[in-house]
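Closing statement on the guanosine-5'-diphosphate sub-project.
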Amino acid sequence: MTEDTHTDTLRTPIVAVLGHVDHGKTSLLDEIRGSAVSEAEAGAITQHIGATDIPLDTISRMAGELVIPDDFDLPGLLFIDTPGHHSFSTLRARGGALADIAVLVVDVNDGFQPQTEEAIDILRRTGTPFVVAANKIDTTPGWNPQEGEPIQRSMEAQSERAMSMLNENLYEIIGQLSDAGFSADLYWRVQDFQKNIGVVPVSAITAEGVPDLLAVLMGLSQRFMKEEMAIDVNGPGEGTVLEVKDERGFGATVDTVVYDGVIENGDEIVVGGQEEPIVTEVRALLQPRPLAEIRTEKQFEKVASVGAAAGVKIAAPDLDDAMAGAPVRVVRDKPLDDAIAEVKAELAEIEVDTAEDGVVVKADTLGSLEAMANALREAEVPIMRAEVGDVAPRDIAITETANQEEHKALLAFNVDILPNAETELESADVKLFTNDVIYQLIEDYETYVEERQRAQQETVLDKVVRPSRFRLLPDHTFRQNDPAVVGVEIIAGTLQNNRSVGYFEGNEFHRVGSLSGIQKQGDDVDEARSGERVSIAIDGPTVGRDIEEGDTLWTEVPEKHAKILEQELKEEITADEREALAGYLDTRRKRDPFWGK
Ligand code: GDP
Protein backbone atom coordinates (compact mmCIF):
# COMPACT_ATOMS: atom_id res chain seq x y z
CA MET A 1 0.00 0.00 0.00
CA THR A 2 1.27 3.42 -0.91
CA GLU A 3 -0.03 4.88 2.33
CA ASP A 4 2.44 2.91 4.40
CA THR A 5 5.43 4.48 2.69
CA HIS A 6 4.14 7.81 3.97
CA THR A 7 3.77 6.89 7.62
CA ASP A 8 6.48 9.26 8.75
CA THR A 9 4.62 12.19 7.21
CA LEU A 10 1.25 11.66 8.88
CA ARG A 11 0.46 14.64 11.02
CA THR A 12 -1.52 14.84 14.24
CA PRO A 13 -5.25 15.41 13.77
CA ILE A 14 -6.49 18.66 15.28
CA VAL A 15 -9.36 18.24 17.75
CA ALA A 16 -11.78 20.98 18.84
CA VAL A 17 -14.20 20.85 21.75
CA LEU A 18 -17.60 22.51 21.37
CA GLY A 19 -20.85 22.72 23.30
CA HIS A 20 -23.22 24.83 25.35
CA VAL A 21 -21.89 26.96 28.19
CA ASP A 22 -21.39 25.05 31.47
CA HIS A 23 -21.81 21.67 29.86
CA GLY A 24 -18.20 20.88 30.81
CA LYS A 25 -15.96 21.69 27.81
CA THR A 26 -13.19 23.23 29.92
CA SER A 27 -13.41 20.53 32.58
CA LEU A 28 -13.17 17.79 29.98
CA LEU A 29 -10.15 19.40 28.34
CA ASP A 30 -8.52 19.92 31.73
CA GLU A 31 -9.14 16.31 32.65
CA ILE A 32 -7.64 15.05 29.39
CA ARG A 33 -4.62 17.38 29.64
CA GLY A 34 -4.10 16.70 33.34
CA SER A 35 -4.17 12.97 33.02
CA ALA A 36 -2.00 13.16 29.89
CA VAL A 37 0.66 15.03 31.86
CA SER A 38 0.57 12.53 34.69
CA GLU A 39 0.57 9.51 32.37
CA ALA A 40 3.29 10.77 30.06
CA GLU A 41 6.91 9.97 30.61
CA ALA A 42 8.83 13.04 31.64
CA GLY A 43 9.18 15.41 28.69
CA ALA A 44 6.89 13.40 26.41
CA ILE A 45 4.25 16.10 26.29
CA THR A 46 5.37 18.99 24.16
CA GLN A 47 4.07 22.35 25.20
CA HIS A 48 2.30 24.28 22.49
CA ILE A 49 0.78 27.68 22.18
CA GLY A 50 -3.00 27.41 22.27
CA ALA A 51 -3.03 23.65 21.91
CA THR A 52 -2.07 20.45 23.72
CA ASP A 53 -0.34 17.67 21.85
CA ILE A 54 -0.94 14.20 23.27
CA PRO A 55 1.26 11.53 21.69
CA LEU A 56 -0.14 8.12 20.83
CA ASP A 57 1.68 6.22 23.57
CA THR A 58 0.32 8.60 26.22
CA ILE A 59 -3.17 8.18 24.80
CA SER A 60 -2.66 4.45 24.95
CA ARG A 61 -1.69 4.62 28.62
CA MET A 62 -4.72 6.75 29.36
CA ALA A 63 -7.11 4.55 27.40
CA GLY A 64 -5.72 1.20 28.53
CA GLU A 65 -6.81 -1.76 26.43
CA LEU A 66 -9.04 0.50 24.31
CA VAL A 67 -6.07 1.95 22.38
CA ILE A 68 -3.33 -0.45 21.30
CA PRO A 69 -0.52 1.62 19.76
CA ASP A 70 0.21 -0.98 17.08
CA ASP A 71 -3.25 -0.42 15.60
CA PHE A 72 -2.45 3.19 14.80
CA ASP A 73 0.04 5.12 12.74
CA LEU A 74 -1.24 8.63 13.42
CA PRO A 75 1.09 10.26 15.96
CA GLY A 76 -1.56 11.32 18.50
CA LEU A 77 -4.11 14.10 18.95
CA LEU A 78 -3.67 17.88 19.10
CA PHE A 79 -6.41 19.43 21.26
CA ILE A 80 -7.11 23.12 20.73
CA ASP A 81 -7.05 24.65 24.21
CA THR A 82 -9.82 27.19 23.73
CA PRO A 83 -13.10 25.32 23.63
CA GLY A 84 -16.30 26.63 22.11
CA HIS A 85 -17.67 27.18 18.65
CA HIS A 86 -16.41 30.71 18.67
CA SER A 87 -12.82 29.61 18.44
CA PHE A 88 -13.86 26.70 16.25
CA SER A 89 -15.29 28.96 13.58
CA THR A 90 -12.37 31.33 13.96
CA LEU A 91 -9.96 28.58 13.17
CA ARG A 92 -10.30 28.00 9.49
CA ALA A 93 -7.99 26.42 7.01
CA ARG A 94 -8.30 26.69 3.26
CA GLY A 95 -11.94 27.70 3.51
CA GLY A 96 -12.95 24.83 5.81
CA ALA A 97 -12.58 24.20 9.49
CA LEU A 98 -9.08 23.98 10.88
CA ALA A 99 -10.12 21.27 13.32
CA ASP A 100 -10.15 17.87 11.69
CA ILE A 101 -12.51 16.40 14.22
CA ALA A 102 -14.69 17.74 17.04
CA VAL A 103 -16.06 16.70 20.41
CA LEU A 104 -19.55 18.05 21.03
CA VAL A 105 -20.04 18.18 24.79
CA VAL A 106 -23.65 17.81 25.97
CA ASP A 107 -24.65 17.81 29.64
CA VAL A 108 -26.44 14.50 29.97
CA ASN A 109 -29.08 16.06 32.25
CA ASP A 110 -29.60 19.23 30.22
CA GLY A 111 -29.61 17.78 26.73
CA PHE A 112 -29.52 20.11 23.73
CA GLN A 113 -29.36 23.82 24.48
CA PRO A 114 -29.13 26.85 22.14
CA GLN A 115 -25.36 26.72 21.79
CA THR A 116 -25.52 22.98 21.20
CA GLU A 117 -27.77 23.71 18.23
CA GLU A 118 -25.42 26.45 17.05
CA ALA A 119 -22.45 24.11 17.32
CA ILE A 120 -24.30 21.40 15.39
CA ASP A 121 -25.10 23.91 12.64
CA ILE A 122 -21.45 24.86 12.36
CA LEU A 123 -20.30 21.24 12.33
CA ARG A 124 -22.83 20.44 9.63
CA ARG A 125 -21.86 23.46 7.56
CA THR A 126 -18.15 22.69 7.73
CA GLY A 127 -18.68 18.95 7.32
CA THR A 128 -16.55 18.25 10.39
CA PRO A 129 -16.78 14.70 11.78
CA PHE A 130 -17.66 14.68 15.46
CA VAL A 131 -18.45 12.55 18.47
CA VAL A 132 -20.82 13.51 21.25
CA ALA A 133 -19.49 13.43 24.80
CA ALA A 134 -22.58 12.96 27.00
CA ASN A 135 -20.95 14.56 30.03
CA LYS A 136 -21.62 14.59 33.78
CA ILE A 137 -22.81 10.99 34.01
CA ASP A 138 -21.54 11.02 37.61
CA THR A 139 -24.44 13.31 38.53
CA THR A 140 -26.95 10.53 37.87
CA PRO A 141 -28.73 9.90 41.21
CA GLY A 142 -27.22 6.89 42.97
CA TRP A 143 -24.12 6.86 40.75
CA ASN A 144 -21.24 4.72 41.97
CA PRO A 145 -18.15 6.45 40.54
CA GLN A 146 -15.37 4.38 38.94
CA GLU A 147 -12.45 6.81 38.53
CA GLY A 148 -10.92 6.75 35.08
CA GLU A 149 -12.57 3.50 34.01
CA PRO A 150 -13.82 2.69 30.53
CA ILE A 151 -17.56 3.20 30.35
CA GLN A 152 -18.52 -0.47 30.09
CA ARG A 153 -16.73 -1.28 33.32
CA SER A 154 -18.23 1.73 35.03
CA MET A 155 -21.72 0.76 33.91
CA GLU A 156 -21.33 -2.73 35.33
CA ALA A 157 -20.84 -1.16 38.76
CA GLN A 158 -24.12 0.78 38.68
CA SER A 159 -27.51 -0.09 40.12
CA GLU A 160 -30.34 -0.89 37.75
CA ARG A 161 -32.08 2.28 38.83
CA ALA A 162 -29.07 4.52 38.08
CA MET A 163 -28.57 2.81 34.73
CA SER A 164 -32.17 3.26 33.70
CA MET A 165 -32.01 6.98 34.55
CA LEU A 166 -28.78 7.40 32.63
CA ASN A 167 -30.13 5.48 29.64
CA GLU A 168 -33.22 7.64 29.57
CA ASN A 169 -31.05 10.76 29.39
CA LEU A 170 -28.75 9.25 26.77
CA TYR A 171 -31.66 8.32 24.53
CA GLU A 172 -33.05 11.80 24.92
CA ILE A 173 -29.79 13.13 23.45
CA ILE A 174 -29.80 10.52 20.68
CA GLY A 175 -33.36 11.66 19.85
CA GLN A 176 -32.29 15.30 19.77
CA LEU A 177 -29.42 14.44 17.44
CA SER A 178 -31.87 12.72 15.18
CA ASP A 179 -34.13 15.80 15.25
CA ALA A 180 -31.07 17.76 14.12
CA GLY A 181 -30.70 15.40 11.19
CA PHE A 182 -27.96 13.12 12.53
CA SER A 183 -28.50 9.45 13.05
CA ALA A 184 -26.72 8.58 16.29
CA ASP A 185 -26.28 5.81 18.80
CA LEU A 186 -24.18 4.85 21.79
CA TYR A 187 -20.75 4.56 20.28
CA TRP A 188 -20.32 0.81 20.89
CA ARG A 189 -23.48 0.19 18.85
CA VAL A 190 -22.29 2.25 15.89
CA GLN A 191 -21.28 0.07 12.94
CA ASP A 192 -20.36 2.80 10.50
CA PHE A 193 -18.97 6.00 11.98
CA GLN A 194 -19.27 7.71 8.63
CA LYS A 195 -23.05 7.36 8.74
CA ASN A 196 -23.73 7.50 12.46
CA ILE A 197 -22.64 9.78 15.25
CA GLY A 198 -21.22 7.97 18.27
CA VAL A 199 -22.36 9.08 21.71
CA VAL A 200 -19.81 8.51 24.48
CA PRO A 201 -21.04 8.76 28.09
CA VAL A 202 -18.32 10.50 30.13
CA SER A 203 -17.59 12.41 33.28
CA ALA A 204 -15.04 15.20 33.23
CA ILE A 205 -14.79 14.93 37.00
CA THR A 206 -14.37 11.18 37.55
CA ALA A 207 -12.81 10.59 34.10
CA GLU A 208 -15.16 7.66 33.53
CA GLY A 209 -15.58 7.15 29.80
CA VAL A 210 -12.59 9.37 28.96
CA PRO A 211 -10.64 6.29 27.74
CA ASP A 212 -13.53 5.55 25.39
CA LEU A 213 -13.63 9.11 24.13
CA LEU A 214 -9.92 9.04 23.28
CA ALA A 215 -10.30 5.63 21.63
CA VAL A 216 -13.18 6.86 19.45
CA LEU A 217 -11.25 10.00 18.48
CA MET A 218 -8.16 7.99 17.57
CA GLY A 219 -10.21 5.39 15.72
CA LEU A 220 -12.21 7.93 13.76
CA SER A 221 -9.10 9.86 12.73
CA GLN A 222 -7.17 6.75 11.79
CA ARG A 223 -10.02 5.31 9.78
CA PHE A 224 -11.36 8.33 7.97
CA MET A 225 -8.71 11.00 8.00
CA LYS A 226 -5.48 9.22 7.34
CA GLU A 227 -5.24 10.53 3.80
CA GLU A 228 -5.84 14.12 4.84
CA MET A 229 -3.20 13.76 7.52
CA ALA A 230 -0.52 12.86 4.99
CA ILE A 231 1.61 15.98 4.56
CA ASP A 232 4.96 17.03 3.22
CA VAL A 233 6.80 17.72 6.46
CA ASN A 234 9.33 19.88 4.67
CA GLY A 235 6.78 21.87 2.66
CA PRO A 236 6.17 25.59 3.24
CA GLY A 237 4.16 25.98 6.44
CA GLU A 238 0.47 26.87 6.42
CA GLY A 239 -1.40 27.97 9.46
CA THR A 240 -4.18 30.04 10.94
CA VAL A 241 -3.92 32.93 13.39
CA LEU A 242 -5.60 32.03 16.66
CA GLU A 243 -4.91 35.32 18.40
CA VAL A 244 -2.95 38.54 17.95
CA LYS A 245 -1.14 39.44 21.18
CA ASP A 246 1.30 42.08 22.31
CA GLU A 247 4.25 40.42 24.00
CA ARG A 248 6.87 42.31 25.97
CA GLY A 249 10.11 42.39 24.05
CA PHE A 250 8.49 41.18 20.84
CA GLY A 251 5.68 43.63 20.05
CA ALA A 252 2.65 42.23 18.25
CA THR A 253 2.86 38.45 17.87
CA VAL A 254 0.47 35.94 16.31
CA ASP A 255 -0.45 32.73 18.09
CA THR A 256 -0.77 30.35 15.20
CA VAL A 257 -1.88 26.81 14.62
CA VAL A 258 0.26 25.26 11.89
CA TYR A 259 -1.67 22.57 10.00
CA ASP A 260 0.63 21.88 7.07
CA GLY A 261 4.35 21.90 6.28
CA VAL A 262 6.95 23.53 8.43
CA ILE A 263 7.70 27.08 9.51
CA GLU A 264 11.30 28.05 10.24
CA ASN A 265 12.98 30.94 11.93
CA GLY A 266 13.84 33.57 9.30
CA ASP A 267 11.11 32.42 6.88
CA GLU A 268 9.35 35.04 4.83
CA ILE A 269 5.65 34.78 5.65
CA VAL A 270 2.38 36.34 4.47
CA VAL A 271 -0.30 36.97 7.11
CA GLY A 272 -3.88 38.16 6.52
CA GLY A 273 -4.21 41.78 7.73
CA GLN A 274 -6.99 44.31 8.24
CA GLU A 275 -6.34 46.09 4.96
CA GLU A 276 -3.78 44.15 2.96
CA PRO A 277 -1.87 40.91 3.43
CA ILE A 278 1.19 41.54 5.61
CA VAL A 279 4.54 40.37 4.22
CA THR A 280 7.11 39.94 6.94
CA GLU A 281 9.92 37.78 8.21
CA VAL A 282 9.87 35.44 11.21
CA ARG A 283 12.07 36.88 13.99
CA ALA A 284 11.31 34.20 16.53
CA LEU A 285 9.23 31.08 16.95
CA LEU A 286 8.14 30.77 20.55
CA GLN A 287 6.79 27.88 22.54
CA PRO A 288 6.04 27.67 26.25
CA ARG A 289 8.91 26.46 28.40
CA PRO A 290 8.61 22.86 29.57
CA LEU A 291 6.90 22.61 32.96
CA ALA A 292 10.20 21.77 34.66
CA GLU A 293 11.69 25.12 33.69
CA ILE A 294 8.65 27.21 34.51
CA ARG A 295 10.50 29.04 37.27
CA THR A 296 12.88 30.78 34.90
CA GLU A 297 12.21 34.42 34.14
CA LYS A 298 11.23 33.98 30.55
CA GLN A 299 7.89 32.48 29.71
CA PHE A 300 8.83 31.29 26.24
CA GLU A 301 11.68 29.49 24.64
CA LYS A 302 12.80 30.03 21.07
CA VAL A 303 12.67 27.11 18.69
CA ALA A 304 14.26 26.86 15.26
CA SER A 305 11.28 25.38 13.45
CA VAL A 306 7.78 24.05 13.99
CA GLY A 307 6.13 21.34 11.90
CA ALA A 308 2.42 20.60 11.55
CA ALA A 309 0.35 20.09 13.51
CA ALA A 310 1.40 22.52 16.21
CA GLY A 311 0.57 25.70 18.03
CA VAL A 312 3.29 28.36 18.01
CA LYS A 313 3.73 32.04 18.75
CA ILE A 314 5.27 33.87 15.81
CA ALA A 315 7.15 37.09 16.48
CA ALA A 316 7.74 39.25 13.41
CA PRO A 317 7.66 42.96 12.49
CA ASP A 318 4.43 44.64 11.31
CA LEU A 319 1.98 42.16 12.80
CA ASP A 320 -0.21 44.81 14.49
CA ASP A 321 -2.83 44.61 11.76
CA ALA A 322 -2.97 40.81 11.67
CA MET A 323 -6.42 39.35 12.19
CA ALA A 324 -7.47 36.39 14.29
CA GLY A 325 -8.70 33.70 11.93
CA ALA A 326 -6.53 34.92 9.07
CA PRO A 327 -4.23 32.61 7.11
CA VAL A 328 -0.45 32.42 7.57
CA ARG A 329 1.66 31.23 4.63
CA VAL A 330 5.36 30.54 4.47
CA VAL A 331 6.73 31.79 1.15
CA ARG A 332 9.96 29.76 0.88
CA ASP A 333 10.27 28.24 -2.60
CA LYS A 334 7.13 29.60 -4.22
CA PRO A 335 6.88 33.15 -5.65
CA LEU A 336 5.84 35.79 -3.09
CA ASP A 337 2.96 36.87 -5.33
CA ASP A 338 1.48 33.38 -5.20
CA ALA A 339 1.55 33.38 -1.41
CA ILE A 340 -0.08 36.81 -1.32
CA ALA A 341 -2.72 35.68 -3.81
CA GLU A 342 -3.45 32.58 -1.71
CA VAL A 343 -3.96 34.67 1.41
CA LYS A 344 -6.16 37.13 -0.49
CA ALA A 345 -8.24 34.34 -1.96
CA GLU A 346 -8.81 32.82 1.44
CA LEU A 347 -9.82 36.15 2.90
CA ALA A 348 -12.12 36.86 -0.03
CA GLU A 349 -14.02 33.69 0.73
CA ILE A 350 -14.94 35.15 4.07
CA GLU A 351 -15.97 38.49 2.63
CA VAL A 352 -19.51 39.27 3.57
CA ASP A 353 -22.19 40.22 1.04
CA THR A 354 -23.12 43.77 1.81
CA ALA A 355 -26.13 45.86 0.85
CA GLU A 356 -26.43 49.60 0.27
CA ASP A 357 -28.53 50.00 3.36
CA GLY A 358 -28.19 47.85 6.43
CA VAL A 359 -26.61 47.41 9.84
CA VAL A 360 -22.89 47.59 10.64
CA VAL A 361 -21.17 44.55 12.13
CA LYS A 362 -17.89 44.40 14.04
CA ALA A 363 -16.44 41.13 15.23
CA ASP A 364 -13.22 39.98 16.83
CA THR A 365 -12.22 37.43 14.21
CA LEU A 366 -12.87 36.55 10.61
CA GLY A 367 -14.62 33.37 11.60
CA SER A 368 -16.99 35.12 13.97
CA LEU A 369 -17.63 37.80 11.36
CA GLU A 370 -18.61 35.10 8.94
CA ALA A 371 -20.80 33.41 11.53
CA MET A 372 -22.50 36.76 12.25
CA ALA A 373 -23.07 37.33 8.54
CA ASN A 374 -24.61 33.88 8.16
CA ALA A 375 -26.89 34.37 11.14
CA LEU A 376 -27.96 37.82 9.92
CA ARG A 377 -28.66 36.49 6.46
CA GLU A 378 -30.92 33.87 7.99
CA ALA A 379 -32.67 36.56 10.01
CA GLU A 380 -33.00 38.60 6.77
CA VAL A 381 -31.14 41.56 8.22
CA PRO A 382 -29.10 43.37 5.54
CA ILE A 383 -25.50 44.33 6.31
CA MET A 384 -24.02 47.60 5.10
CA ARG A 385 -20.52 46.91 6.37
CA ALA A 386 -18.80 44.10 8.24
CA GLU A 387 -15.29 44.31 9.66
CA VAL A 388 -12.94 42.69 12.13
CA GLY A 389 -11.79 44.94 14.98
CA ASP A 390 -12.86 47.05 17.94
CA VAL A 391 -15.58 49.68 17.59
CA ALA A 392 -13.95 52.97 16.52
CA PRO A 393 -15.48 56.44 15.95
CA ARG A 394 -15.42 55.82 12.21
CA ASP A 395 -17.80 52.87 12.67
CA ILE A 396 -20.31 55.09 14.45
CA ALA A 397 -20.15 57.63 11.63
CA ILE A 398 -20.73 54.92 9.04
CA THR A 399 -23.63 53.41 10.98
CA GLU A 400 -25.29 56.81 11.10
CA THR A 401 -25.37 57.00 7.30
CA ALA A 402 -27.90 54.15 7.09
CA ASN A 403 -31.14 55.25 5.47
CA GLN A 404 -33.66 53.35 7.51
CA GLU A 405 -33.81 54.23 11.18
CA GLU A 406 -33.79 50.58 12.20
CA HIS A 407 -30.55 50.08 10.28
CA LYS A 408 -28.74 52.71 12.33
CA ALA A 409 -27.54 49.85 14.47
CA LEU A 410 -24.06 48.61 15.23
CA LEU A 411 -23.78 44.96 16.18
CA ALA A 412 -20.52 44.35 18.04
CA PHE A 413 -19.50 40.77 18.70
CA ASN A 414 -16.81 40.10 21.27
CA VAL A 415 -14.95 43.38 20.66
CA ASP A 416 -14.15 46.44 22.75
CA ILE A 417 -15.63 49.89 22.29
CA LEU A 418 -12.70 52.31 22.01
CA PRO A 419 -12.99 55.22 24.48
CA ASN A 420 -13.36 57.91 21.80
CA ALA A 421 -16.08 55.81 20.18
CA GLU A 422 -17.96 55.78 23.50
CA THR A 423 -18.00 59.56 23.51
CA GLU A 424 -19.16 59.60 19.92
CA LEU A 425 -21.99 57.21 20.74
CA GLU A 426 -23.47 59.57 23.30
CA SER A 427 -24.37 62.14 20.68
CA ALA A 428 -24.87 59.90 17.67
CA ASP A 429 -28.17 58.57 16.42
CA VAL A 430 -26.85 55.02 16.56
CA LYS A 431 -27.99 52.07 18.60
CA LEU A 432 -25.18 49.81 19.80
CA PHE A 433 -25.66 46.12 20.52
CA THR A 434 -22.94 44.10 22.23
CA ASN A 435 -22.88 40.48 23.20
CA ASP A 436 -20.50 37.57 23.03
CA VAL A 437 -23.16 35.08 22.03
CA ILE A 438 -24.17 35.46 18.40
CA TYR A 439 -27.76 34.32 18.61
CA GLN A 440 -28.38 36.61 21.58
CA LEU A 441 -26.88 39.58 19.79
CA ILE A 442 -29.18 39.02 16.85
CA GLU A 443 -32.17 38.32 19.08
CA ASP A 444 -31.54 41.62 20.90
CA TYR A 445 -31.49 43.46 17.61
CA GLU A 446 -34.66 41.76 16.38
CA THR A 447 -36.47 42.58 19.62
CA TYR A 448 -35.41 46.19 19.24
CA VAL A 449 -36.72 46.35 15.68
CA GLU A 450 -40.03 44.77 16.68
CA GLU A 451 -40.46 47.18 19.58
CA ARG A 452 -39.68 50.12 17.33
CA GLN A 453 -42.24 49.01 14.80
CA ARG A 454 -44.83 48.48 17.48
CA ALA A 455 -44.19 51.92 18.95
CA GLN A 456 -44.44 53.45 15.51
CA GLN A 457 -47.73 51.74 14.83
CA GLU A 458 -49.02 52.94 18.15
CA THR A 459 -48.26 56.56 17.33
CA VAL A 460 -49.85 56.18 13.93
CA LEU A 461 -52.82 54.51 15.56
CA ASP A 462 -53.14 57.48 17.89
CA LYS A 463 -53.37 59.91 15.00
CA VAL A 464 -55.36 57.97 12.50
CA VAL A 465 -59.12 58.61 12.13
CA ARG A 466 -61.02 55.54 13.34
CA PRO A 467 -64.00 54.36 11.30
CA SER A 468 -67.48 54.17 12.79
CA ARG A 469 -71.07 53.61 11.79
CA PHE A 470 -73.82 54.85 14.12
CA ARG A 471 -77.56 55.37 14.15
CA LEU A 472 -79.64 58.32 15.33
CA LEU A 473 -82.05 56.97 17.95
CA PRO A 474 -85.78 57.73 17.57
CA ASP A 475 -87.18 60.26 20.07
CA HIS A 476 -83.71 61.34 21.16
CA THR A 477 -83.34 64.73 19.58
CA PHE A 478 -82.37 67.11 22.36
CA ARG A 479 -81.65 70.09 20.16
CA GLN A 480 -82.46 70.78 16.52
CA ASN A 481 -79.28 72.67 15.53
CA ASP A 482 -76.30 74.94 16.45
CA PRO A 483 -75.24 72.34 17.36
CA ALA A 484 -77.66 69.50 16.82
CA VAL A 485 -77.71 67.31 19.93
CA VAL A 486 -78.92 63.78 19.39
CA GLY A 487 -78.85 60.35 21.02
CA VAL A 488 -77.02 57.74 18.95
CA GLU A 489 -76.04 54.08 19.15
CA ILE A 490 -72.65 53.00 17.79
CA ILE A 491 -73.24 50.02 15.50
CA ALA A 492 -69.60 49.32 14.60
CA GLY A 493 -66.23 51.00 15.14
CA THR A 494 -65.22 53.90 17.35
CA LEU A 495 -66.86 57.30 17.15
CA GLN A 496 -64.30 59.96 18.07
CA ASN A 497 -64.97 63.55 19.01
CA ASN A 498 -64.06 66.36 16.55
CA ARG A 499 -64.46 64.08 13.52
CA SER A 500 -66.45 64.92 10.41
CA VAL A 501 -69.52 62.75 9.95
CA GLY A 502 -71.90 62.12 7.08
CA TYR A 503 -74.06 59.58 5.25
CA PHE A 504 -74.08 57.74 1.98
CA GLU A 505 -76.74 58.51 -0.56
CA GLY A 506 -76.44 55.80 -3.13
CA ASN A 507 -72.67 55.54 -3.22
CA GLU A 508 -72.03 59.21 -2.65
CA PHE A 509 -70.77 60.45 0.71
CA HIS A 510 -72.40 63.59 2.08
CA ARG A 511 -70.68 65.36 4.93
CA VAL A 512 -73.21 66.83 7.34
CA GLY A 513 -70.94 68.43 9.93
CA SER A 514 -68.42 67.69 12.63
CA LEU A 515 -68.68 66.47 16.22
CA SER A 516 -68.13 69.00 18.97
CA GLY A 517 -68.94 66.81 21.94
CA ILE A 518 -69.78 63.32 23.16
CA GLN A 519 -71.55 62.67 26.44
CA LYS A 520 -71.97 59.33 28.08
CA GLN A 521 -74.39 59.27 30.99
CA GLY A 522 -73.89 62.98 31.50
CA ASP A 523 -70.03 62.88 31.33
CA ASP A 524 -67.93 64.32 28.51
CA VAL A 525 -65.91 61.58 26.78
CA ASP A 526 -63.51 61.53 23.80
CA GLU A 527 -64.95 58.53 22.08
CA ALA A 528 -67.71 55.95 22.09
CA ARG A 529 -67.28 52.30 21.21
CA SER A 530 -69.43 49.82 19.39
CA GLY A 531 -72.67 49.02 21.26
CA GLU A 532 -72.61 52.19 23.38
CA ARG A 533 -75.41 54.73 23.43
CA VAL A 534 -74.30 58.34 23.84
CA SER A 535 -75.49 61.81 23.02
CA ILE A 536 -73.46 63.82 20.57
CA ALA A 537 -73.30 67.43 19.46
CA ILE A 538 -72.92 67.96 15.69
CA ASP A 539 -72.01 71.40 14.31
CA GLY A 540 -73.69 71.97 10.95
CA PRO A 541 -76.88 70.07 10.34
CA THR A 542 -80.44 70.61 11.43
CA VAL A 543 -82.40 67.58 12.57
CA GLY A 544 -85.49 67.13 10.46
CA ARG A 545 -83.92 68.82 7.46
CA ASP A 546 -80.34 67.56 6.88
CA ILE A 547 -80.58 64.46 9.04
CA GLU A 548 -83.47 62.44 10.47
CA GLU A 549 -83.93 60.24 13.51
CA GLY A 550 -83.23 56.64 12.47
CA ASP A 551 -80.55 57.72 9.92
CA THR A 552 -77.28 55.82 9.72
CA LEU A 553 -74.19 58.07 9.79
CA TRP A 554 -70.48 57.35 9.34
CA THR A 555 -67.29 58.95 10.52
CA GLU A 556 -65.66 60.47 7.45
CA VAL A 557 -62.33 58.64 7.12
CA PRO A 558 -59.92 60.59 4.86
CA GLU A 559 -58.63 58.50 1.97
CA LYS A 560 -55.02 58.45 3.27
CA HIS A 561 -56.15 57.25 6.69
CA ALA A 562 -58.36 54.59 5.15
CA LYS A 563 -55.38 53.31 3.24
CA ILE A 564 -53.12 53.12 6.31
CA LEU A 565 -55.87 51.43 8.29
CA GLU A 566 -56.45 48.83 5.62
CA GLN A 567 -52.85 48.18 4.67
CA GLU A 568 -50.86 48.63 7.86
CA LEU A 569 -53.04 48.60 10.91
CA LYS A 570 -55.62 45.97 10.12
CA GLU A 571 -54.28 43.72 12.87
CA GLU A 572 -54.08 46.57 15.34
CA ILE A 573 -57.70 47.76 15.18
CA THR A 574 -60.66 45.90 16.70
CA ALA A 575 -62.93 43.51 14.80
CA ASP A 576 -65.86 45.94 14.80
CA GLU A 577 -63.58 48.75 13.58
CA ARG A 578 -62.52 46.46 10.74
CA GLU A 579 -66.19 45.83 10.01
CA ALA A 580 -66.98 49.55 9.93
CA LEU A 581 -63.94 50.16 7.72
CA ALA A 582 -64.95 47.38 5.34
CA GLY A 583 -68.47 48.79 4.97
CA TYR A 584 -67.11 52.29 4.43
CA LEU A 585 -64.54 51.17 1.84
CA ASP A 586 -67.08 48.97 0.02
CA THR A 587 -69.41 51.86 -0.54
CA ARG A 588 -66.64 54.29 -1.48
CA ARG A 589 -65.23 51.78 -3.94
CA LYS A 590 -68.55 51.21 -5.66
CA ARG A 591 -68.08 54.71 -6.98
CA ASP A 592 -64.29 54.66 -7.30
CA PRO A 593 -62.74 51.18 -7.31
CA PHE A 594 -59.31 52.62 -6.48
CA TRP A 595 -60.39 54.69 -3.52
CA GLY A 596 -57.93 54.31 -0.66
CA LYS A 597 -55.62 51.98 -2.58
P1 GDP B 1 -17.86 24.94 30.00
O1 GDP B 1 -18.53 26.26 30.15
O2 GDP B 1 -18.57 24.07 29.00
O3 GDP B 1 -16.39 25.01 29.75
O4 GDP B 1 -18.10 24.17 31.40
P2 GDP B 1 -17.09 23.96 32.61
O5 GDP B 1 -16.06 22.97 32.25
O6 GDP B 1 -16.65 25.28 33.11
O7 GDP B 1 -18.06 23.24 33.64
C1 GDP B 1 -19.17 23.90 34.20
C2 GDP B 1 -19.48 23.33 35.56
O8 GDP B 1 -19.83 21.96 35.46
C3 GDP B 1 -18.28 23.39 36.49
O9 GDP B 1 -18.75 23.70 37.77
C4 GDP B 1 -17.72 21.99 36.46
O10 GDP B 1 -17.08 21.63 37.64
C5 GDP B 1 -18.98 21.16 36.27
N1 GDP B 1 -18.72 19.91 35.55
C6 GDP B 1 -18.15 19.79 34.34
N2 GDP B 1 -18.08 18.50 33.97
C7 GDP B 1 -18.63 17.79 34.98
C8 GDP B 1 -18.84 16.39 35.22
O11 GDP B 1 -18.55 15.53 34.39
N3 GDP B 1 -19.42 16.05 36.40
C9 GDP B 1 -19.78 16.97 37.33
N4 GDP B 1 -20.34 16.53 38.46
N5 GDP B 1 -19.59 18.28 37.15
C10 GDP B 1 -19.03 18.69 36.00
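The longest helix spans residues 438-463. With this model delivered, the sub-project is considered complete and its resources will be redirected to Aim 3.
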